[in-house]
Amino acid sequence: MDHTLNKKGSGLALVPFLVFVVIYLGAGLVLQSQGVEMAFYQFPSVTAMFIALLVAFAMTKGTINERFRIFAKGAANEDVLTMLIIYLLAGAFSSVAAAMGGRDATVNLGLSLIPVQFLTAGVFIISAFMGTATGTSMGTIGAIIPIAVGVADKGGLSVPMVVGACVGGAMFGDNLSMISDTTIAATRSQGCEMRDKFRVNFFIALPAALITIVVLLIMGRPETMPDMGVLEYSILKVVPYLLVLILALVGMNVFLVLTIGIFVAGIVGLATGSLDIFGFAQSIWSGFTGMNEVFFLTLFCGGMSEMVTHNGGITWLIEKLRGMMRSNKSAQVGIAALVSLADCATANNTVAIVLSGSMAKDISHEYKVDPRRTASLLDVFSCVFQGIIPYGAQILTAAALTSAYGITMSPTDIIPRLWYCWILAVVGILSIFIPFADGVCRKDPWNWEYDVAESGVAAKKAALEAEAAEARN
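Below the sequence we write its predicted structure tokens.
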């Protein structure tokens, strides 16, 4: 974002972010101690952000109109508005594709193609494809767990391992998908293209996925061969997902990709009788409204970030981090730690990226971390922790879905078997110190002189250096 830069930083300017974390995390901890299910999702994140926004308004000097202009500058930023429209289109595509039966068809097709003896690894692969195609880890878990747990129970497989494979695959897709809200937030906050972030991210996620598949092939073989029964599917209903993946990977504009996906899914639904014209229209609207939480959260956070920056919060943070971040590598570690802590505090990887995105962008400019690399780090480590925190929606939902088969399972039963998330964390850290993904960036070098000047970081550095020189004199 094009922030208004203050010459002098102020740690107090970060209080609104702290208010949000305390309210959101505190409410979850209190309700969890009372035994409330999905405790960390009872207090709406948007409400917590609204309260934090009011604090930011109260802390900003000037008339109410002047304060609102600062808020509007951040909320109406081009990156924020682009992000919001992409959220709406992604929600509509997922809703229409699921309504016409595409999600169930994809799951059944995958289970039909994979040999039963490789079922655990197969569940991971199916979940990875579904998560990448649909952009939603929650939808993937909801679609696959009920089928996979039933087959695992009949075949003598470790149910926690199968559930862990499903959650891991879903997080793989959430991390890489072109239409995932985490990818949208990570790329737009850093000002890079989705396909470029995908290329960097892919060289981190793929090794972790391949190692996970090998582990699951060795440890996940069934004791008996379960009967899968007849799994019905239509190849035609899988086409919209494949089309969106292919068009996004070849570099087509994301607005066109999602719009084409929406109408292709609708046409398939109309052709197969799964949808009528009114059902199609309702599914689009349902997809739009299904994104309301992340929509309002991003809108409020964009405006609040501008107010925090105007008050000197980001300048202060970078000044403090400069003591710990002495190089490009340590800056990358700091960015990974920043988004990881944000996810642990909020139990929502999209919220974590939205909260830390502007700070990460300033850090990456300061230490010349490629924006595509920064976007990848934000997405990778937010997904790692979202998968393994015991109060995250993904793992709580997965554990709850096993109860349909009379199986009692807690998140702590699944976490040790979430091989993909643990392996991804290791590979992600190694990628910082052994830059096997950076070669992708070097093929398309970033124009740092232009980018730094455009971002205003050059002006900020000059102001800080001038202040230091004045103090010395």
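The chain has a mean pLDDT of 80.
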